[in-house]
Amino acid sequence: MSHDHHHVDPNAGDGRLIGAIAVNLGLTVAQVAGGLVSGSLAMIADALHNFSDAISLVIAAAARRIARRPSNQDMPFGYARAEVVAALVNYTTLIVIGLYLAMEAVLRFLSPEPVEGWLVVVIAGVALVVDLVTALLTWTMSKDSVNIRAAFLHNIADALGSVAVIAAGTLILLFGWTWVDPAVTLLIAGYILWMAFSEIGGVIRILMLGSPPAMVPGDVLSEAEAIEGVAGMHRAHLWQIDEHEAALQAHVVVNEGAWERADDIKAHVKARMRDRFGISHVVLEMECARHACASPVRWGDA
């Protein structure tokens, strides 16, 4: 199983991000104004989500710049996790917005207000075009960054929300069904919450130093233990440094009679971890089988 990663130029895409931020902020202003004039809660809901997209892109751009800083004595792993933190902020913001919109939709059901359907359709049509353009601007970068992927998913959700708002405005124009507006708002809120909750778990896993989801931790140690001269592995820690890099720290028990080859065994284990699992940071403490830890734990230090 290969775990090769395809990294993009860290400076690539900055211009696209700035362009996406500008058009989304402009669209947000137009949608809020249109929502207030038309009385459409669904349009304001879509505007708030679109504004969250613009903010997420601002956070993404700032995090990308921070992540480029080199490692130092205070941050030996570098600043790559800045993008993970930014993604957590973006998804948490989405959850708050989704809950707020759901509450506002319920209140609108209880107290209906008139909606100007034609204005809703026109502005939502413009929003759909902008959402699709923004998604195209961030699509390539989203493949290699959890941070940019959060912004990209925001825009996909926005595009779907714009389609829903257009449908709502059309139904209001044709049949006068004003209840469709809060109903669509609930759908938008539900999709926002589903998207945020489905993605935030992976971000939290990285920040909590969880093992890479694409790896089976037991298989990692078993692979090392299959190397000649290795009697066992214990007190292992396998975690994600950031979205692309994993690290392994463990005690390696060397068979009796093989201690003179301990350095070669260590190099072999590191090479196997890199080639088989793509683990680039491996720290090993070598122990002779005769003097190994008493009653060692397989994972962690407990």
**Class from helix and strand fractions:** mainly alpha
* Largest sheet features: 3 strands, mixed
Shape: elongated
Low-confidence stretches: 1-10
Order of helices and strands: HHHHHHHEEHE
Spatial strand arrangement across the major sheet: 1-2-3
Which range does the strand content fall in?
Answer: 5-15%
Oligomeric assembly: single chain
How many separate helices?
Answer: 8
Q: What's the total number of strands?
A: 3
On the 0 to 100 scale, the average pLDDT is 82
Explain this structure:
The chain has 302 residues and is mainly alpha-helical. Helix content is 63%, strand content 9%. It has eight helices and three strands. Strands 1-2-3 form a three-stranded mixed β-sheet. β1 (230-240) and β2 (246-254) form a beta hairpin. The radius of gyration is 26 Å and the shape is elongated. The model is unreliable at 1-10 (pLDDT under 50).
Provide the fold topology.
Elements: H1 14-38, H2 41-67, H3 82-110, H4 117-142, H5 146-175, H6 180-207, H7 217-225, E1 230-240, E2 246-254, H8 262-277, E3 281-288
Parallel strand pairs: 2-3
Antiparallel strand pairs: 1-2
